[in-house]
Design brief:
Chains A, B: Residues 17-77 form the HTH tetR-type domain. By secondary structure, the first copy, chain A, is an all-alpha fold. The first copy, chain A, has ten helices and no strands. In chain A, helix 6 (91-108) packs across helix 7 and helix 6 (91-108) runs antiparallel to helix 10 (187-206). Chain A binds a DNA duplex (18 and 18 nucleotides) through helix 4.
Amino acid sequence: MATRRDTAAVREHLPIEQRRAQLLTAAAEVMREQGVAAATTRAIAERAGVPHGSVHYCFGTKTALVRALLQSEADRSVESARRRSSRSADLEGVLRNVLEAQLESVRTDPGHHAMLGELIALARRDPALADLPGWEHERYVGAAAERIAEWSAASGVALARPTREIATTIMVLATGLGDLWSATGDRAVLDRTLDDCVRGLAARLSEPA
Amino acid sequence: MATRRDTAAVREHLPIEQRRAQLLTAAAEVMREQGVAAATTRAIAERAGVPHGSVHYCFGTKTALVRALLQSEADRSVESARRRSSRSADLEGVLRNVLEAQLESVRTDPGHHAMLGELIALARRDPALADLPGWEHERYVGAAAERIAEWSAASGVALARPTREIATTIMVLATGLGDLWSATGDRAVLDRTLDDCVRGLAARLSEPA
DNA sequence: GTCTATAACTCGATAGAC
DNA sequence: GTCTATCGAGTTATAGAC
């Protein structure tokens, strides 16, 4: 009679938190490469190298896993944007830097960008996740507003508009330009459009309301 | 022994083209109300009031149905935008009108807007539909460029930039502002951000490059 | 040409073995 | 606490009755 030791690799006993993190990483990988729809609990477990049952043992339901994933990926995304941001002398430079950082991440990892969009769309349709789209948006705008305020304080340049208004406008441009890149993949068109957006808005946002 | 007449309503013999249109309408309704993921072939057939087998009889595969649907919905969307467009005296007015028309349709029918986004995301992941996102984007930009050229000819105002450049910028703003509305639902924020975008860009696009 | 019945498969979730 | 085996409901697609 075969024992478990003969038929399968021996698995370690991990603390549940580490097992959760392991599964979240695997879920993000599958979704990034094959799309959110392909990320079944089975596919996630297989990618993580753990048995299917572990998913429900760790998260209870798939919905709970998606919630945890969307939150952790939003954190990761905000943190990544913060690392990419660089110094600038004027508002136009700040706008351009933030937008280029955002677009660089879309260009470097289009699967990850698509994944976040698909997750938000999924959350919008699921009543149990309906609070997440607004939460994520606020997180991005809030982080952008913080960076702008820091820049203003550090550079001594006074802002003609509230930081949140500027941050919101940046978000709008970033998502629009990200979609443009996804749809065309045309670098020249993207750069030209970004230029139009940045220059016009920098002038507009520098005037008092 | 029961005959078919006893157990089910008698169905008419429709030409296959009409049956296809009937199914496309049903598919759009289900996707708009419950999301693309909920639009199974069974749900679509039930909504249309036809037997499940008809879907595969008319379209062969679900992928073929999605392809036909995305194309017809893109047509419908372009046509709807054309009907909403109104006359303006200057470029700023044109920008504002086009954007407000787009946002009005997002506000009036958010489910339809979400559906189009979900369909594009789905197409991007499916090799058999991978040509559609670019095709749809080109369709929108092309239609917007046509309207701008018509306006320029009718009003006698010369454009400082190529119509496609202006049209592309409008698309970027429209998608970005649409996402902003979806995420916040805040009318005041939307109007303020739209104002910033329109004024800045109108000035920028009026200067020679 | 249209529809029913079912095949063949995958899903999320769980009961119970270990 | 961890994993296997399985359940029941869902899916697309099709073979064959009418």
